[in-house]
Amino acid sequence: MKKIGVLHGMERSFPEAFVQRVNEKQSDFQAEPVSIERVEQGVATDYAVIIDRISQDVPFYKAYLKNAALTGTAVVNNPFWWSADEKFFNNALAVQLGVPVPKTILLPSKHRPDDTKHESFSNLQHMNWGAIFERIGFPAFMKPHSGGGWKNVYKVDNAEEMFRAYDETGQLVMLYQEAIDFTDYFRCYCIGGKDVRIMPYEPRNAPHLRYDAEMKTTGDAGKKLMATMHDYILKLNHGLGYDFNTVEFAVRDGIPIAIDFCNPAPDADVNSVGQANFDWVVEAAANMAIERAKRVQKGKDNLTWGTFVRGSVMGTGLTEAKADKKADAAKMEVGQPVKEKAAKKDSNPEKAPKSDKKDKDDKPKKKK
């Protein structure tokens, strides 16, 4: 019997709940933490599906997952694309998809990479800092073009602060990005390219209080904002090909601006996301993993590839993700699961509830 596995590190609450929920929902595929004894080239694993929560930090695991994918395992997220992806490309792709993003400039590393010399950069001209500052303005953020977890992120209010921060970045390639003065902020799960949960989020709070927030935009404007974010979430994840991701939006003048959407192992710890959000992501991930396991074809490529890659292979160019254009914005609710075909069954709130408030829909249904 093929299995459904979760590959994880120190994380406990999500992997344990995920395994339990998958096993409660069905008996065709045993769910368990991935067990690795020996990795041999071209030899298949016992897993139909593996949910990857740690390979970004462990190169050995990344190589293991690529070998597993080559021999037929559906790895979530696609380890080949995850290895190639980074935040600057994400922003560039978002521009092509018509999703608003902050103005962003890519900066070369302050210090040269190992084993390079001055002559290695004969194609690189001196940065026109005056033009860059005029384009991006102040305040601004500087952060690594690849990575996450709020590591090496700087907010700068003037050129002096920017250069001081830049001096600390070493060999990191950095993004220099306009700061968005937002009135609303959201972090949004997207699971399986279809299930969406939009969560009010306050990034300026302490980590354990960031989900203790409420949506401020209400009425018709709030419904329009919800519909727009839902559309953008699907466009971005279909374009990138992620099965398990989060998208963050900062709302300025009613427009949701995508801030961060390269999170292939997003936070899903019950102590930070709150019980209601935790129950939802466990249930959605379990459903997605079971569906994927049932569709796996032995020895075939069972990975998800985004529209960017598929369009390149087919020679059709970038194609937009197909969101359900009939979804009614008035029937979507913050903090509720949104399926494209089921949008008409959602409630019609005037004001979004707190994201950590538990309701009946948030409780996973146990197998009887």
Automatic annotation (TrEMBL):
Keyword Nucleotide-binding recorded: yes
Domain of life of the native organism: Bacteria
Keyword ATP-binding annotated: yes
Example of a GO cellular component annotation carried by this entry: cytoplasm
Chain segments carrying region Disordered: 321-368
GO MF entry, a single one: ribosomal S6-glutamic acid ligase activity
Composition skew (Basic and acidic residues), residue ranges: 321-331, 338-368
GO biological process: SOS response
Signal peptide location: none
UniProtKB keywords: ATP-binding, Nucleotide-binding
The ATP-grasp domain, residue ranges: 91-291
InterPro entries: ATP-grasp, ATP_grasp_subdomain_1
PROSITE patterns in alphabetical order: ATP_GRASP (PS50975)
Protein name listed in UniProt: ATP-grasp domain-containing protein
Species the sequence originates in: Fibrella rubiginis
